[in-house]
Please model this.
Amino acid sequence: MSEANYSASPRGRGLGGGGRGSAGGPAPQPPPPRGRGGGGGRLAPPAAPPPQPPPARGGGVFILVPAEFFATRVGRTLARLVLALILLAMWEYLPGADLRFWMSGPVEIVARLWSWLLDGSLWENVGATLSAMALGYAIGTATGIALGLLFGLMPRLYRVLSPYITALYAMPKIALAPLFVIVFGIGIQSKVALVAITVFFLVLNSTLDGVRNVDRDLTRALALMGATRLEVIGKVLVPATLPWIFTGMRIAVRYAFTNTLLAELIASNSGIGFMIEYYSGVFDSTGTYAAILVLVIMSVGLTEVLTQIEARMSHGR
Model:
């Protein structure tokens, strides 16, 4: 066989030339891609997946409202109003006819409040509650501060009377309400007495704690410089005790309000507690809910006033 015939064979390679096939043979295939380094014939790693878009904010019911909106004051207020409207609508329309005797609707409650506003009974009972609370609070605060300063200046007298003071302070004050009704009647006097004795012990203990924490070295220094007893009390003792006194007064306000209502629930002829007890006694759910709503409004207003006073005092310090 000659060299020309061999080179025209289908394999397209000469015996010693190593050349490619002729034009009539199959097209050469490219080599498979190799990995890094070119060794071992490994395939290249797959391409990284495309980045996914970030998840949408504010899922759930508020999917169309961004979450940052509820971090603002307007957003929080709007969310609270929407929630209140939903609850009121459920309260108005969900209960059936068999529950309406026990659960009056918001429309009926508002109508009852409006009738109380027109005939003046609401203002009369709110005034009775606030007047009894304010009078008892003033009496208890004044006597608590006075005796607290006196016991602080006369520790031997306090050590003699401390067992009796501790026993009276540990006793639940509401247990004295029936006794005060027997002694003072069902008028405002029994409520004032209960509030006064409750506030008295709270302010007394706070004042005593403040007197005990006065810097004794400062009082001795003033005494060595010739200051009188009244000057020491006015320039050192009272200013150093004022933060403790205000703390006791702030705590006592809530107890005064609570004990006023409890006294009216036990025996009274006026006040918000009397209205709650009266309408619940005659199975008037609308009047009971309306009186409780007035009580809630008074509690929220009182708490807001105390918060503002405390913030002003903290800022002043």
